[in-house]
Design goal:
It contains 5 helices and 10 strands, in the order ββαβααββαβαββββ. With 194 residues, it is an alpha/beta fold. The protein has a single domain, classed as Dihydrofolate Reductase, subunit A. The strands form 2 sheets. Strands 5-4-3-6-1-7-10-9 form an 8-stranded mixed beta sheet. Strands 2-8 form a two-stranded antiparallel sheet. Strand 9 and strand 10 form a beta hairpin. Helix 2 crosses helix 3.
């Protein structure tokens, strides 16, 4: 059975994004290549790329942020590499408002999120990762479909923004690993407690 892993940056006060649409809610992130590398290694040694599952808002933000780096000859090498990797990854976007997706290796799904994810988990293949996509995280958490929660906890009190676990039922988690970085970020990895 495939695992579903949620990966999100969060502020100390539990927000995964601010309300600033110009920055896609990421204006408080504390960048750190060491954190990015550690998060990147979560995919393990598998040669099969993870399936990236996201909602419409996250998809639009990713597409607008990363696709331009693919064709920009002046894009920094590191950003271009991330853009290429994201482009190669299979992506499944759940949205009832987006009409079409044009990013390579992306499928649009307008049906029942929970039913489709239950089906995906039963299929053979690489694990599934959710990034951003707070509404999807909330729905799948309440259905018990997320197997691991990975947080990049940033040393910031955002004050206001989009809460990651709005209206989510209580859920016990078991710490798998914790790693701190000089930037003040902490990478926390949890499995769902039984």
């Amino acid at each position: 059975m495939r695992k579903i892993i949620m990966l999100n940056r969060i502020s100390i006060d539990g927000f995964f994004a601010t309300l600033n649409q110009k920055t896609w809610g990421m204006d408080w992130f504390i960048p750190d290549p060491a954190v990015d590398q550690a998060a990147h290694e979560l995919g393990g040694e598998s040669k099969t790329p993870l399936l990236l599952l996201m909602g419409g808002i996250t998809y639009k933000g990713f597409e607008r942020s990363w696709v331009p780096h693919l064709k920009d000859p002046n894009a920094p090498r590191e950003l271009k590499a991330v853009a290429e990797e994201l482009t190669e990854m299979p992506k499944l976007v759940f949205s009832k408002t987006i009409k079409e997706v044009t990013w390579e290796n992306t499928r649009l799904f307008k049906g029942d999120l929970v039913a489709e994810v239950k089906k995906l988990k039963q299929e053979k293949g690489a694990d599934i990762m959710i990034m951003g996509s707070g509404t999807i995280v909330q729905q799948l958490s309440n259905e018990g479909l997320i197997d691991e929660y990975v947080f990049i906890l940033s040393p910031v009190i955002a004050g206001k923004g989009k809460p990651l676990f709005k209206d989510v039922k209580q859920l016990g988690l078991k710490l798998i690993s914790a790693k701190s970085f000089d930037s003040g970020n902490i990478l926390l990895r949890y499995a769902v407690g039984k």
